[in-house]
Design goal:
Elements lengths: L14 E3 L4 E3 L2 E3 L2 E4 L2 E3 L2 E3 L6 E4 L4 E3 L2 E8 L2 E3 L2 E9 L4 E3 L2 E3 L2 E3 L4 E3 L2 E3 L14
Parallel strand pairs: 1-4, 2-5, 3-6, 4-7, 5-8, 6-9, 7-9, 8-10, 9-11, 10-12, 11-13, 11-14, 12-15, 13-16
Amino acid sequence: MFFKKSIQIDSHIDTLVGHETHIHGDMQFAGGLRVDGAIIGNVIENREHPSTLIISENGSVTGAVEASKVVLNGIIRGPVKSSVFIELQNKARIIGDLYYKSLEMHTGAVIEGKLIYLGEQAEIVPPVDAP
């Protein structure tokens, strides 16, 4: 039996932030966004349309990131929330907390923060105070 990924990454790119491009400010997107340059600001998908964010080896985001599907091989400095799937390739680096439902992490990827699972939310029981 062969392993087949159950979650496919849409490789269709609607928007490209080129290698020499620097954006200062928040960005909202729909569809496929590929970042080869630098964004200083939050990168958030339009919640009505599940989207794919691809950040290449040369790409970086300094700010919060939210997308249904994320493929990272560059750097994100800020919290990351992936509601469906995130793939951290070998040169990926996250400096911040990662909220995920499904995670694939290659050897060499680094997360400097907490991993918070968004799957089946169990009822949160408050801690009991010790005497």
